[in-house]
């Protein structure tokens, strides 16, 4: 996951005041599906697109949601209003998409994962899942908020 071309912890922390109207444009530039989720607030989907054009919705047709499933190449414009102070996470809701990965989103050689109870996944299983797209456990370069126009 990247925000304006950078992944956490190297991202700029976005800061808003209570009552501000926040506008983001999110792009899924990966080959993966990403259910994008905002903790603590609902957001309105202003427009959706496919990378070549957007469909804007009238006020009455704007979905009010906490999670939007974004397919590869999909775009979304959203608005939300922080109604209380705090730190609010916007992320893909698939845990393996925000765990650490190696360069280019690939598995790290010789890396194993620890699971509850001290058991270890086999390296061959981790590598096979990541190579075939059936797994992986880290941030891909997918959905990213960028300033909305207008």
Topology of this protein?
Elements: E1 22-28, E2 34-38, E3 43-49, E4 54-56, E5 64-65, E6 67-70, E7 75-80, E8 90-92, H1 123-132, E9 143-147
Antiparallel strand pairs: 1-7, 1-9, 2-6, 2-8, 3-4, 3-5, 3-7
Description:
This protein is mainly beta. The chain has a domain at 22-99 and 139-147: Cupredoxins -  blue copper proteins (Immunoglobulin-like), CATH 2.60.40. It has one helix and nine strands; from the N terminus they run E-E-E-E-E-E-E-E-H-E. It has one helix at residues 123-132; strands at 22-28, 34-38, 43-49, 54-56, 64-65, 67-70, 75-80, 90-92, 143-147. The strands form two sheets. Strands 1, 3, 4, 5, 7 and 9 form a six-stranded antiparallel beta sheet that branches. A three-stranded antiparallel beta sheet has the order 6-2-8, with no helix packed on it. The radius of gyration is 17 Å and the shape is globular. 20% of the residues are buried.
Summary of the model, kept short:
With 150 residues, the protein is mainly β. It has one helix at residues 123-132; strands at residues 22-28, 34-38, 43-49, 54-56, 64-65, 67-70, 75-80, 90-92, 143-147.
Assign a percent range to the helix content.
under 10%
What is the overall pLDDT average?
75
The assigned structural class equals mainly beta
Shape: globular
Tell me the major beta sheet.
6 strands, antiparallel
The top level CATH class name of the domain at 22-99 and 139-147: Mainly Beta
Gyration radius, rounded: 17 Å
